[in-house]
């Protein structure tokens, strides 16, 4: 009896541990705070603090579970750049990590801090404040954007422009619309036409286009008089404005263009490297483009050469050197020479990832390698993508994880398992109870909780008997504030 009391005393004064029932090996969970809080809701830890709710009001606790910010706020957001936005009596402001109000709660709306500044609104006017509450940009604007390299777009009297952190106007407030910077140029609209200005406000692309897109790889698509083309950052037309449609910007140095109902590919000089003879063109992947003609699909390279014949009813895209192709109702894979490397016998396939592809046959899922060899037998109702060597699998309504060899590493006994591991652990549920499993299948946090949250900054919330507590990640307990309460 004396020994038992000593053990209990040690637990209460130092770490609180709880053995896991039913796990592969006996393990312990380390409590920072035992489930004792009657919080209504809890948030993840950010910058060392977690938002918590009690009686309809919000506050913050630190990693030891100590209430640092009292439950006086109607709404709070996570800490960002050392400050958290909070709401009380329909007004917003900011607090620091001691709970001190550093930006008074006088605003009707605020955004979190970015680059040391935050957008704030009072009435129907916007401005910008710093972390001490000083108004860097006065509240005289109808709208403001986030800062970008010291600049912010503002709207006043229905017009847009750009000012710096000192409030100096660098792009005159004369434009009807603005799309913020892409590759250091600002898209502006005036009188229904679009162009680009630089950071000094100088017009570098004339404001003559009906539509424009953002710059990518130094080129932007533009529309004029119903036709599309591309310009460079000096405003020079590099791809003639003659096309009926351009589906997206340049990718791998080429772009899809359509004219007269047919599709082809152009390079950045405007050369039609793939003639406009195709009914459809898919995305470019690994240097090849999927093309369709008269209902059949294949692949061409960037010179227009057909490398996979147009004999398939449907194709996907190349991934890890192979592309999924369909004939009739069956799928398989071809390489870049058009050779069939995985037979076209499957009801469904997913693209290759980490040298493996999930495939379906006779209503069951398995996995094949790049030679077509079945490495995971067709036993499963569903298999997810492999990530860090493991894939989520489902069989007869139960979930677990398998490895690349098909070995079950996390038993398929769970009603729900997270789709991936975070910090080495995955949330799992069985019979309405929650816990965590590791990549070996060990229940390192026993499934005894009514609710759990994902680990963040090494800690996770757990709920038992209606009370919330905090546990440490058993894989990363070093330097964490573990103790009892």
TrEMBL record:
Protein name in UniProt: WG repeat-containing protein
PANTHER family membership: DUF3298 DOMAIN-CONTAINING PROTEIN, GLR2918 PROTEIN
Keyword vocabulary terms for this entry: Signal
InterPro entries attached to this UniProt entry: WG_beta_rep
Signal sequence extent: 1-23
